[in-house]
Design goal:
The complex is a heterodimer of chains A (486) and B (265).
Chain A (H helix, E strand, L loop, with lengths): L2 H26 L11 H35 L14 H21 L4 H6 L7 H7 L10 H39 L6 H41 L2 H6 L3 E2 L7 E2 L2 H32 L2 H16 L2 H21 L11 H26 L2 H9 L4 H30 L2 H7 L16 H9 L8 H35 L1
Antiparallel strand pairs in A: 1-2
Chain B lengths: L15 E12 L2 E12 L3 E5 L6 H8 L9 E9 L2 E2 L7 H7 E4 L10 H12 L5 H14 L3 H4 L12 H14 L4 E5 L7 H14 L4 E5 L3 H7 L2 E6 L2 E7 H6 L4 H7 L5
Helix pairs in contact in B: 3-4, 3-6, 4-6
Classes of the chains: A mainly alpha (486), B alpha/beta (265).
The complex binds adenosine-5'-triphosphate and magnesium ion.
């Protein structure tokens, strides 16, 4: 039975459990709700959750574990000498899976009987041709051991599916039975459901945390591979970036980091004052009518895809800056420049800063403003000395969020600042950032064993550490001022 | 109200500080203050009493134009301080509020240190010549707010970390620090214990030497203790206004009598 049907069945059991559990509880209280410990729905939920949650949990575990088990078993069919220089075990395993899928298709199309699929051998049949006839194209003739492995794979997958079905339905019925029998008017269904909800929420939180950890670990792992081929001092302190796919590249991160920070700095220089002043105007001075129109209008800026900003940088801002600033002042000839990318990125970030700051400024209680105005402070004195300090933690948060966005931005940089790594102070020169280089190292024909490719992971990890550091710093600032201001 | 000791009062000789004529206040369509006429004397404590929602705070906020900050609020009529119309175009509400201080119904210390809370007004108005002068103003104000002893060792801790009653006294100290000519107090003692209340009442009595004080209170005893004049508000009308002794012992209007004897409220 497919996972989908299994799910429907389990959910069906759950729904049934809800109805039955509820009515059993009511019956045990002679139909009087006041005799029950909890409201009748809680008994229903208790049975439903006891039916669904263990079954679905087990289903999730089995669908993760079983394929690994099967792969391990099947790979014993692959003789060690068939793994040569240019193939790996996982490549052979994907061949096996393809053949097994092909056999499945053939059986489903009626071109083979189930028996035949499990007994055909390469000596008597041309498997490649038979499968080709039902539209499964294989790259080469099927090796005998691959076919045998594929057949074993199919058999085991079928067995696994059968067992999964039994187990899941068994667990669902078990959970149903236990919780149903426990249902009577003394039973504290409300508390049990409370715990169930807690477990559900904790599961969601741990999934979020575990995936993050998983991503970090895989990056750390690949980064370690990279540092085995390339010395870390050359990476962190190298001032030239010139990858060369024939080997012998210079992979110094400094020019990329410099480009990233330079562009982000200019972007924040644009976004923070404009965004913050816009937020102050909107929340403190603007009339209600203007605000209800202007705030969504600014927020639309945040919805524009960054590639559109990139086009704007490439076609409008870049040439404009070159023709009116860079060339007349003799600072540069190129349309793509740090300035272009920084300005456009700054415009992109304005709504982040303004929208968040506006909410935060609005959250400062009116009584604080009254207090200050009542002493005879002007409106702007009140904002500067009372409202902004009170809102500071949130504003810092907004700015750092914008900074993280700036550091991670790619599209605007490619189109606005180019892809040339350079270490220069002149803002009218083309430069590039870490993210752009991650993309360019991973696109095209890549070989995941060379330092030129693996460096992408080291770059990614560095970026991750920087944004993490930024967030920790933000947290520190917020805490520090919280103590003082709340 | 036999338990009220009404002290001897001398109010006749004082000249008028605030005079309101035909004041109307609207919150949108809600007519909150109706036709109020009142003359508040200088160097006097005037109490506003009346049931909840009758417009005491609203009228108080007219006197320092705090109602300007509420979009829906509209004030009509004339209010003059020292004969000068405060709703005149020439009058700068910011200057006015420096002259007419206010203590709000709910304590609202700034999220700053205790010291900075008090120093806020003097700094804005340039009242201190130097640091020592400012220190002195802060200490004097905190003493007058009856809170100096409790906070003198923690002047640089946040004002928001104080208890509710301490916060209210901090706000009183903050209001006196700018040396206003008129002090408007909206239920300043509602969060205070009897000892702090007594201290604040002492402060009010002391302020009377130089300033005009208007205090909103729900406590008849307090009104009787600290004020020389009392105004009774009901449903937006100023029902009765007169010497505190007369209002409490011999009210003219039946509504006033019902209120102070606890029958309406
Ligand atoms: N900001 C406001 N917006 C709209 N209506 C208001 C506002 N403030 C007060 N009102 C209305 O004005 C009327 C008078 O309110 P006010 O706060 O002056 O009463 P109060 O006498 O101070 O009452 P309390 O003793 O409970 O403080 C009430 O009907 C109230 O609903
Ligand atoms: Mg009030």
């Amino acid at each position: 039975m497919s996972v989908f049907f299994l799910l429907i069945i389990v959910l069906g059991f759950g729904a049934l459990g809800f109805v039955l559990g509820r009515s059993r509880a009511l019956a045990s209280a002679d139909g009087n709700i006041r005799n029950l410990h909890s409201l009748p729905n809680y008994y229903g939920f208790n049975v439903a959750l006891s039916t669904i949650i263990p079954a679905l949990g087990l289903l999730a575990i089995l669908s993760l574990v079983l394929p690994i088990l099967i792969d391990n078993r099947v790979s014993t069919f692959i003789p060690a000498d068939s793994i040569s220089e240019d193939t790996t075990r996982s490549l052979v395993m994907s061949d096996v899976r393809r053949v097994a899928d092909g056999l499945d298709t053939a059986v489903a199309a009626g071109a083979m009987t189930e028996d035949e699929a499990q007994t055909v051998s390469t000596e008597t049949t041309d498997v490649r041709e038979r499968l080709g006839a039902v539209g499964v194209a294989l790259g080469s003739n099927v090796e005998p051991f691959v076919l045998r492995a594929a057949q074993s794979y199919r058999a085991q997958a079928a067995a696994a599916q059968l067992w999964t079905t039994f187990l899941i339905i068994g667990v669902a019925i078990g959970g149903f039975a236990i919780s149903f029998l426990r249902t009577n008017r003394e039973f504290r269904a409300r508390n049990v459901v409370e715990n169930g909800v807690l477990v559900l929420l904790m599961a969601a939180a741990s999934i979020a945390i575990l995936t993050t950890l998983g991503i970090v670990f895989s990056m750390v792992f690949e980064t370690r591979n990279f540092f085995q081929d390339y010395h870390w001092t050359d990476f962190f302190f190298g001032t030239t970036w010139s990858p060369n796919f024939r080997g012998d590249s210079d992979l110094g991160i400094i020019p990329l980091l410099w480009g990233t920070l330079y562009i982000s700095f200019i972007a924040l220089l644009v976004a923070v004052p404009i965004g913050l002043f816009a937020a102050i105007y909107l929340s403190e001075y603007a009339t209600h009518k203007f605000r209800s129109f202007a705030k969504p209008a600014i927020e639309i800026l945040a919805g524009i895809p960054t590639i559109v900003y990139g086009l704007f940088a490439l076609i409008t801002v870049g040439p404009f800056l070159r023709d009116y600033f860079a060339q007349p002042s003799g600072l540069g000839e190129s349309a793509s420049s740090v300035m272009t990318a920084g300005l456009v990125m700054g415009i992109m970030l304005i709504p982040f800063v303004s929208s968040l700051s506006d909410d935060i400024i609005n959250a400062v209680p009116q009584s604080m403003r009254d207090g200050s105005l009542g002493i005879g402070a002007t409106h702007s004195e009140t904002i500067r000395q009372v409202v902004l300090p009170a809102a500071l933690p949130g504003i810092v948060g907004a700015v750092l969020l914008a900074a993280s966005r700036a550091i991670g931005e790619t599209m605007i940089v490619v189109l606005g600042a180019g892809a040339a790594a350079r270490l220069d102070l002149n803002p009218f020169e083309a430069m590039t950032t870490v993210t752009v280089k991650i993309v360019s190292q991973l696109t095209g024909d890549t070989d995941f064993a060379s330092p030129e490719t693996l460096v992408a992971f080291a770059l990614g990890l560095t970026l991750f550490v920087i944004t993490l550091g930024l967030n920790v710093f933000a947290l520190y600032i917020v805490r520090k001022y919280r103590e003082q201001y709340e | 109200m036999d338990d009220l000791r009404i002290v001897e009062r001398d109010v006749d000789a004082k000249e008028t500080k605030i005079s309101a004529k035909n004041v109307q206040v609207y919150y949108g369509d809600n007519h909150a203050i109706k036709d109020v006429n009142v003359e508040i004397a200088d160097k006097t404590v005037t109490a506003f009493i009346g049931p909840s929602g009758c417009g005491k705070s609203t009228f108080l906020r007219c006197i320092n134009r705090m109602n300007d900050t509420i979009d829906v609020c509209r004030v009509e009529g004339d209010i003059a301080i020292d004969g000068e119309d405060i709703y005149d175009r020439k009058v700068d509400p910011v200057q006015l509020r420096a002259k007419v201080g206010m203590v709000f119904q709910k304590p609202n210390p700034f999220p700053k240190s205790i010291y900075d809370n008090i120093a806020y007004g003097p700094r804005i108005h340039g009242l201190a010549k130097n640091k020592a002068d400012l220190d002195n103003i802060v200490e004097q104000s905190l003493r007058r707010g009856a809170i100096w002893d409790e906070v003198k060792d923690r002047l640089h801790e946040p004002g928001t970390g104080l208890s509710g009653g301490q916060q209210q006294r901090l706000c009183i100290a903050r209001a006196v620090a700018t040396e206003p000519e008129v002090l408007l107090m909206d239920e300043p003692c509602s969060a205070l214990d009897p000892i702090a209340t007594a201290q604040v009442e002492e402060l009010i009595d002391e302020l009377r030497q130089n300033y005009s004080v208007v205090i909103v209170t729900h406590s008849m005893q307090q009104a009787a203790r600290v004020s020389q004049k009392t105004a009774f508000f009901h449903l937006g009308y100023l029902v009765e206004y007169g010497e505190t002794g007369t209002i409490f012992t011999n009210p003219e209007d039946p509504r006033t009598e019902s209120y102070i004897t606890g029958r309406i409220g």
